[in-house]
Amino acid sequence: MDVTTGGSAPLAEAEMVALAEKALEDIAAIRLEVGKVIFGQAAAVESTLVAVLAGGHALLVGVPGLAKTKLVTTLGTVLGLQSARIQFTPDLMPSDILGSEVLEQADDGRRSFRFIEGPVFTQLLMADEINRASPRTQSALLQSMQEYHVSVAGKRLDLPAPFHVLATQNPLEQEGTYPLPEAQLDRFLLQVDIGYPDRADERRILIETTRLGEAAAAAVIDAARLIEIQKLIRQMPVGESVVDAILNLVRSARPEAGAKGAARHIAWGPGPRAGQALMLCVRARALFEGRLAPSLDDVRALAAPVLQHRMALTFAARAEGITVSQVIAELSAEIGK
């Protein structure tokens, strides 16, 4: 038996296949265009695209110089989205993100306040080095990431659709960084870990990016088409076995799951939002790979990106050198058993 979520009626099989084939053509064109600019990092590109196709936000984590910012900029161009960039610094204020009211005086002497929109009023917001700003400033993004509107001077101001935040983060052990609040971390659909490229990819980077006339990406789709694909993904069927696997995985990552196994190392675990994120992302990954329904392999592949920023280990576990990735790998090994 298959299940779907959302208020709309399930699509007929023939209609679903036709829409999926058209979406696959667009996704293939997007991947090709991104590949002209971003060399290697296939896993990071896939995870970031999955987050956007699923309609969510992504946190890109890695040391400086791994093309995190370039990836976000390229995606904004290829997806045809209005984009803005905020460089997070220790002195950044919430008004620098949301905007502020200014007092203006008309020719007749009358004064009134006018709201000047901040960079958050865009479709793709790049929050560069988000953990270099203070927690107070970081929290300015909370409402916009969850509710897709902001409140300024008691008024609700809706953000453009679609709205995505792709944030880059430096490792916390580097100087001048602040840990993101747990509530904000939970708003990110995925955490995308970006590592160093292999030798062949790094050789290509050296050659391609230092010659005259560096390659540039072009728009493949627009915002309206992206929204259509996102709606299609929400209508894709999900098998009962996949739903049960998601439930079992998320619930097993909580300390109350029991004293046995990996759960004994967990201080706090993911809430229901993690399950919602997995439900959306497994659909998006299935379509990304040319399938009409997700499988257990999708759950295994997305377990770490969805869960690792939504849980923390006990002091004893950290003292033993146990990592979140190891715990998630142990939990993922139980999927399908």
Automatic annotation (TrEMBL):
<keyword id="KW-0547">Nucleotide-binding</keyword>
<comment type="similarity">
    <text>Belongs to the MoxR family.</text>
</comment>
<keyword id="KW-0378">Hydrolase</keyword>
<dbReference type="Pfam" id="PF07726">
    <property type="entry name" value="AAA_3"/>
</dbReference>
<feature type="domain" description="AAA+ ATPase">
    <location>
        <begin position="54"/>
        <end position="198"/>
    </location>
</feature>
<dbReference type="Pfam" id="PF17863">
    <property type="entry name" value="AAA_lid_2"/>
</dbReference>
<dbReference type="InterPro" id="IPR027417">
    <property type="entry name" value="P-loop_NTPase"/>
</dbReference>
<dbReference type="InterPro" id="IPR050764">
    <property type="entry name" value="CbbQ/NirQ/NorQ/GpvN"/>
</dbReference>
<dbReference type="GO" id="GO:0016887">
    <property type="term" value="F:ATP hydrolysis activity"/>
</dbReference>
<dbReference type="GO" id="GO:0005524">
    <property type="term" value="F:ATP binding"/>
</dbReference>
<dbReference type="InterPro" id="IPR003593">
    <property type="entry name" value="AAA+_ATPase"/>
</dbReference>
<protein>
    <submittedName>
        <fullName>MoxR-like ATPase</fullName>
        <ecNumber>3.6.3.-</ecNumber>
    </submittedName>
</protein>
<dbReference type="InterPro" id="IPR041628">
    <property type="entry name" value="ChlI/MoxR_AAA_lid"/>
</dbReference>
<dbReference type="InterPro" id="IPR011703">
    <property type="entry name" value="ATPase_AAA-3"/>
</dbReference>
<keyword id="KW-0067">ATP-binding</keyword>
